[in-house]
Design a protein that fits this description.
alpha+beta, single chain, 4-stranded antiparallel beta sheet, about 70 residues
Length: about 70
């Protein structure tokens, strides 16, 4: 099992200091998708956020959401 880290950037940043032990990258991606559901509820017009997924070897994925007020 590898340790994966999930860090949120944007209006309410969160630095994952402990990480989560997961089976593989596929399991880390699934966990990231679940985390986006928690974060999306806080998104306001004009804000953006990102979720970076990494392991001990470095970055693996980034999920980004941006909202723009058009008028």
């Amino acid at each position: 099992m590898r340790r994966y880290y999930f860090e949120v950037g944007g209006e309410h940043p969160f630095r994952d200091e402990t990480g989560s032990e997961l089976k593989d990258e596929k399991a880390a991606w699934k966990e990231a998708r679940l985390l986006t559901r928690d974060v999306e509820s806080a998104l306001q017009p004009g804000e953006s956020w990102s979720l970076d997924i990494s392991d001990q070897d470095g970055p693996l994925y980034r999920i980004s959401i941006m909202s723009e007020r058009l008028r």
